[in-house]
Specification:
The protein is built from 14 helices and 31 strands. An eight-stranded parallel sheet has the order 22-21-20-17-14-11-24-23. Strands 3, 4, 7, 8, 9 and 10 form a six-stranded antiparallel sheet that branches. The chain has a five-stranded antiparallel sheet with strand order 25-26-27-31-29.
């Protein structure tokens, strides 16, 4: 008789919160007609140091033998666990689907459990709008003040500077996009279904991207002032939106209050004297017997901060520090720049500071690869970040829709679903594009990219003039939009946050880093594409069950991507055509006969997809 004919049941119920963990009551029910059970236990996988908790027989109910125990587990974002026993003398493992096996279990066969780790509910399945502040919209009516080493464009449509300016300074041209401009357009942003604003850095900095901080306590004069940030947060909250701020804690600018290389600030900076109160903020090394400061990737404008320094940690995470100050202005979360270069201890202190201000504060990290495989506790410890930017999935999705790379998409999804905590999966930042990669419309419109490079968005050329002057032909743009919409439709139904980089919703172009940061094209928008994004936003708003629904991949082939999202009461089957041809195929009969709702792209139908079309069929479970 097949093992599949026997059903096992387990319940893991939290009964007490401990100082650094939780106590659970574990109950395992095994079918008595399968045999005699000995050595029943729960295996909690921790690499080479697995934990084993024996379970004692307590009683029988019907045809089931019940084994139970109380267990203590330390705080951790995700544990993999399974059960083992001897049946009639033979050692068996019990897979996550309840089936007995004699094989060693891998992660896909084990179940997952999070201990004292929960991401904020408002971040699960959210719609995010990612704004590069200087290039979104100018709200102030007066001229920008004169500031050294900065140039200001005469008007919004003037060509941007890509590369060094006439003075040899990079990223020093400003358009004057500011916090008031964002606040003035909140109704537009909300029309996209957006529930989270993610702002690029807004504190006083040297450059237009503001990843080189000059003063952590004040908003950059070109972006507004601290009260403008408070006003924006208040206005966003009234409209049901949260605000996440980009946090750059790995390095500062050299033209900063803390380093002060140019003497811009009245205090003595670390560059000026090792006796400065700020000298301990920075990481150093010995060179030819002298103490030298470290610079991020060797860039002389970015001195690296010392994440092990008591003074630096206190300044950022201590009571009354930078994080407390920002939250006092109304923000709801942080995106940690280059999070993989911050120490585990520092990230844990950041979490303490965030949760001190808002128990449901959100922490999102810039980590480009699988954070569960990096030998760090970014997420795994349960004391660090809630989630990460999902570069791996976005890369795999782009490769699938551009090149038909079925294998990569399949294994990236498998890795995420088997290795990540559920709350992290539900809050992964799945983006159209970002300030660091080529614009989405360019990605799908041409093949000027390294198909076999490390990342799907790396252009074949890094020549700044080529990137600056690159423009899609009308035919390329039309083709790119067709593929782009199919990609976004699929991404919109995947677990996690759907993030729109400002302008991607209206076809803003940009080849490569820097050229992707053009001003938002007010007055020159692709209204057809904009309506598509509003349709996607409406769908995400209506289908609230997607926030925590499980993912089941049905089929990934060279023609289409078919998957399910499974909620407690609702489920949906999504199929997306990655080709320029009509595609017909069979879908599970229950979806064909009992549909309670259909979302479509390009007039497709379930089982009959138009070129680059899609259909999503919803059922009540």
């Amino acid at each position: 008789m097949s093992d599949n004919n026997y059903e096992t049941k387990c319940n893991i119920i939290p009964i007490e919160t401990l100082e650094n963990g939780k106590r659970y009551h574990v109950s395992l029910e095994l079918p008595m007609n399968y045999g005699w059970y000995d050595d029943v236990g729960m295996v909690v996988e921790k690499g080479s140091d697995d934990l084993f908790f024996p379970l004692k027989y307590t009683r029988s109910e019907g045809n089931m033998a019940i084994f139970e125990s109380d267990i203590d587990l330390e705080t951790r974002a995700v544990y993999q666990y399974h059960f083992i026993c001897r049946v009639n003398g033979y050692l068996k493992s019990i897979k996550s689907d309840g089936i007995f096996t004699e094989k060693d279990l891998g992660q896909g066969d084990s179940s997952k459990l999070s201990v004292n780790f929960e991401a904020p509910d408002w971040a699960k399945g959210a719609m995010m709008y990612h704004i590069f502040v200087d290039r979104y919209r100018k709200g102030r009516e007066d001229d920008l003040p004169n500031m050294t080493r900065r140039t200001v464009h005469k008007n919004w449509n003037e060509e941007m500077v890509i590369g060094p300016d006439s003075n040899g300074i990079w990223n020093a041209d400003f358009y004057g996009g500011d916090l008031k401009g964002i606040e003035d357009t909140l109704d537009y942003i909300k029309s996209l279904g957006v529930t989270v604003l993610y702002l690029s850095p807004v504190v006083w900095s040297q450059s237009n991207h503001r990843y080189d901080t000059s003063d952590y306590m004040n908003v950059d004069p070109y972006a507004g002032c601290n009260e403008n940030l408070r006003s924006l947060c208040d206005a966003a909250h009234r409209k049901g939106m949260k605000v996440v701020l980009d946090a750059v804690f790995n390095h500062t600018g050299n033209d900063s209050k803390y380093f002060n290389e140019y003497g811009t600030f009245s205090n003595t900076g670390a560059f000026q004297s090792m006796d400065s109160e700020y000298a301990k903020f920075y990481r150093k090394h010995y060179e030819n017997g002298e103490v030298k400061y470290d610079y991020w990737w060797g860039m002389p404008n970015l001195p690296v901060c010392d994440g092990n320094s008591y003074e630096w940690k206190k300044f950022i995470t201590g009571e009354g520090g930078v994080i407390d100050h920002w939250f006092s202005l109304g923000i709801d979360g942080l995106r940690l720049d280059v999070a993989d270069e911050l120490s585990d201890e520092f990230i844990e202190l950041i979490r303490i500071a965030v949760k001190r201000n808002k128990p449901d504060g959100f922490i999102l990290g810039e980590v480009w690869k699988n954070p569960m495989r990096m030998g760090r506790s970014y997420i795994e410890s349960g004391k660090g970040m809630d989630s990460v930017m999902d570069y791996s999935l976005v890369d795999a999705m782009i490769r699938y829709f551009k090149y038909g790379d079925v294998e990569k998409l399949a294994y990236i999804i498998r890795d995420i679903m088997t290795e990540y905590p559920k709350d992290t999966i539900n809050t992964l930042m799945n983006f159209t594009s970002t300030h660091d990669i080529t614009r989405a419309i360019n990605l799908f419109a041409t093949y000027d990219f390294q198909e076999y490079g490390e990342w799907a968005w790396n252009p074949n050329s890094s020549d700044l003039e080529w990137c600056k002057n690159f423009k899609l032909s009308p035919e390329q743009y039309k083709y790119g939009r067709e593929v782009y919409e199919a990609y976004v439709f699929a991404l919109a139904f995947m677990p996690g946050i759907l993030s729109i980089f400002y302008g991607d919703e209206v076809g803003l172009q940009g080849m490569g880093n820097l050229a992707n940061r053009k001003p938002y094209p007010w007055g020159h928008r692709d209204k057809k594409l904009l309506e598509f994004f509003r349709y996607i936003g409406k769908m995400r708003t209506n289908e609230t069950f997607l926030k925590e629904a499980d993912l089941n991949v049905v089929d990934i082939n060279n023609d289409y991507f078919m998957f399910e999202r499974l909620g407690e009461e609702d489920k949906v089957l999504v199929t997306v055509n990655r080709t320029g041809e009509d595609k017909s195929f069979a879908i599970p009969g229950e979806y064909e006969k009992n549909s309670s709702g259909i979302y479509t792209l390009k007039k497709s139908l379930p089982g009959r997809l138009s070129p680059y079309g899609a259909a999503a069929v919803k059922l009540r479970r």
